[in-house]
Structure formats: C-alpha cells, structure tokens
Known about the structure:
Elements: H1 2-32, E1 43-57, E2 60-73, E3 85-95, E4 100-110, E5 116-125, E6 132-139, E7 149-153, E8 156-159, E9 165-171
Antiparallel strand pairs: 1-2, 1-9, 2-3, 3-4, 4-5, 5-6, 6-7, 7-9, 8-9
Amino acid sequence: MRFHLILxxxxxxxxxxxxxxxxxxxxxxxxxxxxxxxxxITGEFGWFAVGxxxxxxxxxxxxxxxxxGTLFNDKGExxxxxxxxxxxxxYDDLDFNNKKETAAGYCVITDSDGDSAYFNWQCExxxxxxxxxxxxxxxxxxxxxxxxDYTFVGPPQIDxxxxxxxxxxxxxx
Length: 173
C-alpha cells in the first residue's frame, strides 16, 4: 500500500512538472513572436542602379531598371538584415524641369541564411531626396509573417557617363 502511495505522489509531481514545462514553453513562444517593431530597420542601403533611361522631353527622363546592393543595419552584427543583399526592380520618373520625381518598385532582401523578405516601395517629391515609404509584403523562413510600413529617402550620389548610378538610401532615420 505504501508503494502505491509513493508512486501516486511521484506521478502527481511528474504531472505538475509537465504542466509547468508546457506553460513555460508557451510563455517563451509568445514572448518570441515577432511584432512589426521587430521588423524595423534603421540603417542604409548602398546601391548601384542599372537600367535604361528614356528621354521624354528635354530635362525629363523615365528610367526602368534595378537597384541592387547591400543593407547596413545601424545595430550592427547579428541585427535584422545587416549585410543582407537587396535587388529592387523599379521605375523612376525624373522631371528636372519641374524638380519632381516619382519612383516605385519592389525589393527582395536575402540574408546569409538564404531567408528572404519582400516589400514594395514608392517615393514622390523633389529630385534630390524623393522621400518615400516601403511596406513588407511577405517573406520566407524566419521572415514569414513579416509586416510593417516604414520611411526612407534615397538620393543618388553619382550619375555615371555609362547611364548607371550609385547612391544610398537612408531608412527610418
């Protein structure tokens, strides 16, 4: 009889331990769930633009091509998308006569693990900064469920003689 009582106490202790472990795992899982704030990048995207420009009229160009380069997160090593590669097919309508620019496109950003996030972007404003927004549209691997809308400015730095351009985009600053 005493053996059964000890066995019953051990079984109850094991059940309590099991319930505690399950509850702790659930709390950790909920705490680990990503929020839109977790997906926020503050940093710079250094890019090189390749494409084709069409002169619409004197001082007005329509460009179609791709911005590609590397993203640098201000938080450094181990932070979201730090040193990740980006490719962004896009258009850019540059009207230097009226100092107006409208541009938009999509981006795929891929980290060294091969996981990717996707977003669309657009900007409108003067031909110097073209302030804009981007919105995550999806992702793979650890970026599944990524979401959020953020801001940027993306001034070109050099327009090369061969029609390409170099610049950087400042994100969320």
